[in-house]
Structure formats: C-alpha cells, structure tokens
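Sharing a chain and its predicted structure for anyone who wants a worked example. Both blocks are below, sequence first, tokens second.
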Amino acid sequence: MRERLTQVSVRVPVEEEDPVADLFAEVFRQPAALATDADTLVTEVSAYCESAASWTPARAARLGAGLERLRRAGRLSRQPRVRVRTIRTRDWANSWKRHFKPLDIAGRLLVRPSWSRRRPGPGQVEVVLDPGLSFGTGQHPTTAFCLEQVVRHRPGREPRALLDVGTGSGILAIAAAKLGYAPVEAFDFDPTAVRAAAENVARNGVADRVRLRRRDLTRLPRTSREQFDVVCANLLADLLVRERGRLAARVKPGGILVLAGILAREFPAVRAAYEELGFKKLAGRHINEWESAAFRLLTTTPTTGNHV
C-alpha cells in the first residue's frame, strides 16, 4: 500500500448511509468505507484512492450529480459537502480509533478493536475486529440487534447451526462460532467482503469452524436440504421481500430468522411477506429510521424441500 492516500468522503445521518454507500461504490468501483460515530450516529462514507489522479473532474461531477439525485428523490435530507484530502496511510489507520468503540452484548460477547485494552469478563467471549479500507467496523445501529439475537439463541445442550447471509466483515459468523454454534456458514456476493471476512475469521482463530463462500442469494436453489436453527440476513428490503422463499427454505421449522437494516417505512411490507410464509415476529428494534426484527418459523414453508 502506498504511503499516502486520497480520501473522498461525505458525512450523513446513519439512516441515510446506504444509498450514499451504493453511490460511492458505483462512482469509485469499490465498496465504500463506513465509519459511524456511536455518540452522534453520523456516518462518514469514504472512498480511498491510491493516487490523486484517480479523483478526476468527471468522477467529481458524477458524485455531485448522484448526491443531488438522491436529495431530490428524498433519500437525503440535504446534499452533503464532499471533502477531499490527502492522508498518510498510518494516519488513516489511527483515525478509525475514535469511531470504533468496544461493544458489550449482554455480558456474553465483547467486540473490540485490536488497539482496545478492554478484556472480556468471566464467561464472555470476544471478537477482535479492525476496519479495512473497504469496510466499516460493524458499528451500524442494527448490528447490535443482530449480535444480541445470536447471543440470545446461542446453543445450550443441543447443537445449533447458523447461516449468515451477506456476511460483510464476518462479525456475526465469528461471534456465532465463538458462542458454540456449529456448523456456521456465511456468504457474500462481494468478493472484497469475502476476502475481508476470511482475514477476520482467521485472525479470530475460527477458520476451522466457519465455512465462508462467495455466493449470490438470487442464484441459490429455491429449495434446500440444508437448514439452520438461526439465519441472519442484513440486506435491503426489496431483496428480502423478493428472495423470501430462498431465505425461508434455509430456516428449520421452529428456527429463528433475523432480518436487519430495513428502513422503518419499508418494514411493514417485509413483515407481511414473511408472515405469509409462517413466520411470527418475536422481537424487534426501531433505531432512528432503521427497523430490525427476529422471527420464528412456526410451520414448514411451501418453499422447503428435499433438493440441494
């Protein structure tokens, strides 16, 4: 990696980060880096270019036009200011430290960056996760809900299997493996996410307990012989609705489905779509504009079957 990077960034309320991150990925052809301040709930969405020449007038115009388009469509409350600066690579690494704070989940799980001196309490397992150029730190408000559900439904005397759909940094899969889930499977469509997750899985010493793959949810078989006690899916609402059959097919009868990262105005449609398949809402959380929920599958869905 070069000694200096060009950072292009905007700051938006956390509930507005998704469309901006998608825009950055489109303009820069790389996943956006997200850093959410846990106190202010403001997210800095950034792209890092290895040379100043990569920040061209054409690219600047595309980004500006895209932000204006999102504002006009009601996806942004205002058009944010684009900030461009040159930073040293080591300064970039240090800048994340003010954003990433340890997360304590129900006294059972501690998620911390490597530079934190906090240590797990008695009976508490830890996940060590540092940010990368293309991924945030798992500080999104909905992440805590997902982690809480993974802790809540952790295995007791009987083994429990978990599937993490859209794994990103791998945080949920790593936590599940540390909490005793087996088997643990995780996949993501983005190859950069899969590489980042693989590094985090290895760093946390659970590479032998997490099966990590690059897969596209929309191309999975509609029926599945392999089913899981807990399935986590932090995806866009339209994808959750459109691919509900494929997700439902991978939940055991009586199993738990955790859906997160849904805009509150879109949640009723998501809930209705899954209730039609036999799911019942068990728990939920509304944070700013985000809604997350855990459902139990009460009956075998029409989409399950005996095919791989």
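Comments welcome. Residues 162 and 184 are 5 Å apart (CA to CA).
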